[in-house]
Amino acid sequence: xxxxxSATTSADxxxxxxxxxxxxxxxxxxxxxxxLHRLRRLGLTVRVFETGTGxxxxxxxxxxxxxxxxxxxxxxxxxFSKELLEEWDWTEHFSPQPETERYLNHVADKFDLRRxxxxxxxxxxxxxxxxxxxxxxxxxxxxxxxxxxxxxAIGPLSAPQMPRLAGIDSFKGPSFHTARWPKxxxxxxxxxVAVIGTGATGVQTIQEVAKTCGSLTIFQRTPNWCAPLHNGxxxxxxxxxxxxxxxxxxxxxxxxxxxxxxxxxxxxxFEVSDAEREAFYEKLYGERGFGIWVGNFRDxxxxxxxxxxxxxxxxxxxxxxxxxxxxxxxxxPRNHGFGTRRVPLETKYYEVYNQPNVTLVDIKxxxxxxxxxxxxxxxxxDFAFDMIVYATGFDAITGSFDxxxxxxxxxxxxxxxxxxxxxxxxxxxxxxxxxMMMLMGPHTALGNxxxxxxxxxxxxxxxxxxxxxxxxxxxxxxAEGVATWTEHVRKVGAGLLSNEVNSWFTGINSxxxxxxxxVIARYSGSAPEYRATCDAVxxxxxxxxxxx
Length: 548
Ligand code: NAP
Description:
It contains 18 helices and 20 strands. By secondary structure, it is an alpha/beta fold.
């Protein structure tokens, strides 16, 4: 495979030949950076287009106050380079966004990645060209670029979504979506601040803003079940021990259901006595990270009664931590059980509601009618604010694809192919979209994302390497492969309580037309099973794909 501008073709413009590469990667986040590194090592010419002005993806854009990992820092870094593991020190068990952004910049520098990344470059369209077997990529500036392979590294949570509210542009003060937070620090001191949204992002924002603001009013539509993060500093001795334990730790992550450090408890909820169960919940509530979610009894997310038991435990915790019981009751979810949506991890989140300057507004009781010039109006009252924060989440999983006009064979639009839900082969390929590989696309195992990313990237690199070695230039998922995988994804998700609840996990977004019906958007089987399937395809020479 060779790249670089060659003979003039119909795609070339008056401005000159269209640049050609072996591969174009969209996005310079954790997956795009690693994919660039791997393909370069394979000897390919690669161009990465990144909308932002720096690397980091999620950790570049989400610079809202309080943004930090919810997975243990050391389990979240790249594992592919021993040298990198050895030289990087994490300072906290759950790294704050600035540190993570520094880390990803360090990676970009260390592996000299920047020279192949074009920043401030938003991809608006990608069109498959059958004859030359190339993707034509159009940027927002009107320029075109071509490549044999298109690799989407655009993330499952990267298309920020504003709420649909009347008058949204009329507010005169500063307002921010959390995923488009300014680089300059925002000072909340003495300010009257509104936060709309109480997902994982809202929770992190709220607990930070509450420290300095004049007053904080939280507009909550659906409460979420939050659990303590138990963050802490990492000193030099502990970091040394973590480094020494890396091989074992990464091996362990490879074995767990979703690549987290925590392992599902093999017992069922009611196999143990009431006292043992309570003690186990208490232990998990007191431990760091996602243990209470992914290290709980094995039936917690499948048996409604088991789920009710842990929900009742966490509800009691909320009642203990929040002084005003009317407020506590509003903070307890009623329409879904613990862990059936992503569990926000928190640090004194519930205690924020004990502050005299904090007000919780349940917008199911008193809906927001409009954003006004001076604040917002609910059905019950007018509120005046100096700042409004929209922590209203993302057009998840397929949203970042929908925002690019991706057209495959015969001009078919990916968005149309996925009406009614995504259909993929292994979450990596789509029928009629040859040579397009998705990293962390729909139907892949997400879990502890960097662990899944490294596998995903390695697999895609293996496929491209195989094609190069065999002189192949076109790869496409078969209709049968897509149907089988999509059905498999549906089957492994059946019986999982999280797939019976509205959230981004199930493709629901109240702010977007056409996203009000649940779909199976994520692969919810185990990561080891996912990898075994993909490994078998690779070992068999990718016979399940159409190669030519
Ligand atoms: P989210 O979980 O989708 O939460 C969005 C919030 O905004 C919800 O409370 C939602 O209410 C509310 N909302 C949306 N539209 C609204 C409207 N029109 N009016 C009023 N409220 C509205 O989004 P997120 O909090 O940004 O989190 C998304 C995901 O990002 C997380 O689940 C997690 O996977 C990831 N994340 C990770 C970290 C980390 O690792 N540290 C941190 C933050 C986020 P409803 O629930 O009623 O729709």
